[in-house]
Amino acid sequence: MLMSKTPLAVAVMLCAAGGLGVSPAAWSAQGSAELPAMVVSATGYKQETLRAPASITVVDQEQIQRKPVADLAEVLRDIPGVAIVDSGVAGMKRISLRGESSRRVLVKVNGQPIPDHSSYGSPLLLDVNMIERIEVVRGSASVVHGSNAIGGVVNITTRRTAAGDTEAFVGAGYYSATRGHRLNGGILGATDRFDWRLQASKADFGDRRIPRGTAKGTDDPNKYSRLKPSGSEQKSLSAELGWTLDERQRIAWQGDYFKQEAEAWLPAQENMEMGLDFPKRDSLRNALTYTFEDDSALFHSIDGRIFHQTGKRVMDNTINIDMAPIMTRNTFTRSHDKLTTHGLQFTAASRLFADNNTVFGFEYQKDKLDVDKLATRIARVPAAMPPVTTLTPSSQLSEQAFWSAFVQQQIKLTDSLEANLGARYYDIESRLKKSTDRGKTKKTDDQLVGSASLVWQYNELSSLRANIAQGYTYPSLTQQFSATPGNGAMNYGNPDLKAEKATTYEVGWRMEGEQLTADLALYHSKAKNFIDKVRISSTADDYLTACATTDICFQWFNANKASTTGVELMLAYQLESWRPYVNMGAQKRRLEYGTGLKTWDSGLPKFQGRAGVEWYATQELELDFYVRGGGKSRRDDYDSKGDPDRQRTSSYAELNVGAYYQPAWLPNLSVAVLAQNLANRRYRNPDELQAAGRALDVELRWSF
């Protein structure tokens, strides 16, 4: 859809962002609560936070270190509009923004996109100790950041140190809910010409302990005190080597390696035993970057990179059906996936028109997904008869390539009023090059998306914003071509899928005062060709073969429309030694299908949030008392047998106490402690495993 086909003049929006939502302990008792001074991810150029036209939240290194977090997803959990998704695999958490699936959220590391063509979306597989800063843009952001940014963007920047400085650190953590532990360490340094960074971590998490009882959100009658299996192991290594050519230019190599094993917990089913394991999920990323910064030059900022990534995944799916004496059937499917990505990016910012920033950008990326599967089925019909063994191998090679170009223009109307206009053009092609299950095919698409915003900073402390932005997500290779087992069913791709498109409208207000810091946003998002799944028969499409491992089959399809309306609030008030705060989001979504069915049961909770108070007890000790809670949700879906099922979660509230201690007599040591779910409440968030019971997390860090 061209930008002219969308009524860009109809709506206005405001961004609700800032760095107050995640870890309130980031502010000192002696200083005022402040929003981050500068952000980049909203428009592609550096600007004051009060002038940013997008809903953006910033989390920095200090905030991360003041709270024990077993993984990156937990750093972001309390931002309004953010939900964590694990789909039964606790070790592979992903992020959802404003109710959009993880497939519609773009994750970037140092500006480099992290592709993932699974049906789940990009897991946050990064060690938190390598992070300097995270900027989370909520709402459609495809003009500045590209495809898959319908829900928003998580832009992660890794650590660097100033010239002449050297830092080394070691850390350890213990997490009682999983009997898990983490060890990490690193060294950073810089001279006038060179800088370097080397970090490593290792973590091992066991099964999640929960309050004893039936598993929430399932029909499983069994009683559990832990979810077995649900453990994971992780190892990572991250490095960077930079060369400063002169005071304006820098070249750097960046490399990251991540290795993981994870197990999925699945509820028990009558006459059926299922298992889903990921014995291998590895990723390797390399990038060569060039940056130029000179505020007096015609192009005052230039950023370019070329990158190469490989990801390897092994998935084991087991389904054992025992309906003796009628029949028994044991099925084991092993899938080997290899995703190879290479690409380049170039962005330049200039002041071609007076003192207004103009940002130009170009991007190219090519993904190749190579999949090999072997399904082994042993059936006895009737159960007393000799077994019949069937081996079903399959393989598939598919590719997706795109290029895009964009421009973002700042327009300063007055000293206090400015606008931003942007547009990006996409050209994309997906190709099934070979397959044992279906014929070769090719699909192409092109798209033009736009954005427009208005920001009025009516005094030094406050601003009003209005924004409309379009988002665009092209179907993944899995959604188009693959046949993927999972949770007792086969999920088939659909080559005829259309790209998802969305337009987000926002209005809001932000204030940064000596004591009061506030951020409020109202938004409405309209999506078209929303991609979902529907149950089918195994012969419903010429592209489908008979289900090799199960009689339960689903296929991806385009729902007609999805409309989401919500509000987000972040509020904090700084007293001498106390800081009360509230971070809250509420939203509702209506799905409209091509059959005429309309439903509000989309799976979104009515609200999610956190409210609490910080107490700066001494110069060395900070305490944080807070309640985290969520509202009810309902979703019309299918259970693991393919039968219609309404999934429900109930409202909840849990009590938590956190502490951060840095002794004056040993300033290199810091201790972070979090006592979670003190009332031992039983609850489950949508698309997550049941929450852990009463637990204690402790992290120690030593810098030298």
List keywords for this structure.
single chain, 704 residues, mainly beta, Maltoporin, Chain A, 22-stranded antiparallel β-barrel, 4 helices, globular
Structure, explained:
This protein has a single domain (3-265, 274-303, 311-537, 556-703), classed as Maltoporin, Chain A. It has 4 helices and 40 strands. It has a 22-stranded antiparallel β-barrel. The protein has a 5-stranded mixed sheet with strand order 3-8-9-6-7. The protein has a 4-stranded mixed sheet with strand order 25-26-30-29.
Q: What order do the helices and strands come in, and which of them pair?
A:
Elements lengths: L37 E2 L7 E2 L6 E6 H5 L6 H5 L5 E4 L8 E4 L7 E5 L2 E2 L17 E8 L3 H4 L6 E7 L7 E10 L4 E11 L3 E12 L2 E7 L8 E5 L4 E13 L4 E16 L7 E22 L5 E25 L3 E27 L2 E25 L7 E25 L4 E19 L5 E16 L5 E12 L3 H5 L1 E4 L2 E4 L7 E13 L3 E13 L2 E6 L16 E6 L2 E13 L4 E15 L5 E2 L7 E9 L5 E10 L2 E6 L5 E6 L2 E10 L7 E8 L18 E9 L1
Quick rundown:
With 704 residues, the protein is mainly beta. The chain is built from 4 helices and 40 strands.
- In terms of DSSP E residues, the strand content is over 45%
> Which fold name fills CATH's third level, the topology?
Maltoporin, Chain A
The top level CATH class name: Mainly Beta
* Structural class based on helices, strands and sheet pairing: mainly beta
Could you report the average pLDDT, rounded to the nearest whole number?
86
Question: What is the assigned CATH homologous superfamily?
Answer: TonB-dependent receptor, beta-barrel domain
Distance between the amino and carboxyl termini: 55 Å
Using only CA atoms, what is the Rg?
A: 25 Å
- The CATH architecture assignment turns out to be Beta Barrel
Integer tally of domains: 1
Uncertain residue segments: 1-35
Number of helices: 4
